[in-house]
Design goal:
Belongs to the [NiFe]/[NiFeSe] hydrogenase large subunit family. By secondary structure, this protein is α+β, with helices and mostly antiparallel strands. The chain is built from 17 helices and 17 strands.
Length: 632
Amino acid sequence: MSGPNQIKMVVDPITRVAGHLGLTATVDTTSRRVVNNEAYTYVTMFRGFEVFLRGRQPPDAVHITSRSCGVCGAAHANASVRANDMALGAVPYPLGQALRNMAYAMTDMTYDHPIILNVLEGPDFSAQVIQNYYPSCWQAAQQTKASYFDIHGFSTIADIMAALNPFQGSLWVGAVRAQILAREAGVLIYGRHSHPSMLIPGGIGTDLSVGESLFTEYMYRLTTLTAWVKVLISAWMDLAEFLIENCNYQYQGLTYSKPTYISGYGFESPELYSNLGDDYETIYQNYDSLAQKASEEPQTIFRATIVRNGELLSKSFIDLNVAQLEFANSSFYQEWAKSTSPFTETDPIGNKLAWGLAASDGTPYYMYHPWNKTTIPNPTAPNFLEKYSWDAEPRLIWKDGTIWAYETGPWARLHAVAHYHPDSPIVSSGKISITLPTINEIPSWLPSGSMGEWTVEWKPPDYSTTLSRILGRAVDTAVAIYVAWENLEFALQEYMKNQTSPKTSRPWKQPSFSVGIGQYEVPRGTVRHWMVVKDYTIANYQYHAPTTANVSPRDNNCNGPWCINGQGIGAFEMSVINTEIMEEVPPDQWVGYDFTRAIRSFDPCLVCAAHFEIKGKVNKKLEHIITPVCNT
């Protein structure tokens, strides 16, 4: 007990997430809410990849950082290969970029989203849970007809909940079946998953000697997945609408009262990406041209965006990089800014990092930019008033000196394109609008209603909540299917122009000095990799996993009306602070489903957010661990 009518709830570990995540919160049993913002989430693993990447050749990072996680390995590989493209001055030919888009649409988006929705998040909304902990909601679900019955085939909302029962429900089982098809389609291009072997700086190493067969096999799987995604989205749209209207769930899991997020690029135009340049300065300078409409399809889908407290600050990739800081005040790392030298004070085109601003003690903020950060682990006993997580503290700083925490994820990127990028091909009249085509033949495990053409429409709300994040994830699968069809058609046309020697990749360079940054929109957020190259060797490497910003611990690096008691608080903790416990059982029987629903809606991947652990006495010193993959 923490006080009268107060209990301390600890969920550690939070299951059905990748890695080890813990939550502790003090809850008032009368209001059923967190007391005095006392909710903390913490990562209990150290990653260490930034440490052992130093001194290696840059292309190695693509395949080593992929091993950060067994779930989102392709996410890291894609961000790393883009950092390499820039630093080594080579970008793919259009066919190579289209193949990258095709593979990623399958191996992560179409594979990963349904798994978190139906297998990891779904059980929290299953009939088994709702019946026992939310009986009034279950009673209403039995009596509520499903609006999209003609597509997904479920008569009532209770039927959808039953379909989410683990191991038996049709949505749970369907997600397992579909992810096999999605991984197979991606592996045709990547060579393997989740650690794609074919991604290389300047292109992709896919064997196109049997190109016609590759495209045919890919399309065969894509047709079934197109029908499956219609079932997935329509079922979750019905379920979310019901929970909002009948179970008081509209604002559960709210992060920030006004939109506060970033979005990066994702699924770039093959034509535009192929023409970024052939040196790191030019590629960096031209990056924002990806937001321009291409002269031919496919177009770039997601675009750089910074939104702070409901205000659009920028639509520039360059601004998003210049403004990035990372602190370690509440994390198990040592301060580095006063004991190390900067690798660069500016970006490749001369902009001062962190706008040339300095902290109150005179320390230049550019020392906290990832190009200058040094990872120095410093494990100590957890203390929620000091250091309590292995996740560091990503923050943004603006030209006016304000600093704040922020959110990333499917809701954020879809909100960004719907509200601020009307030229994105998935936007119409301020809504996400994607037409999924007719499918003439489907397997027996899919309902017949999934065969017809269906236009998915969704207007992302101006708030990130448990359900808006879940719906954003569902709609994002439609984006992946759209991208897959568009790039398949484009790639096939490019391939047919020169079947004997199709061009996918340009040779990379070996610079004496360069920097690179790769940002990519991925299932659970935005992944960002920064690299400094000296004499064709990695002098510094830092990266933010998709979950890093969202699970960020609170710290005092915040100023502005969005701060809470002078603190910047990460999205995970804010989502718990703004959640009411709705379980219809006495407090001593509370499980914390509403809290874990809020957190699981982000699809946490802690393994790649912060992972090796040594316990006890160490008697052996490792002199050699991994040989660089490009060394001969």
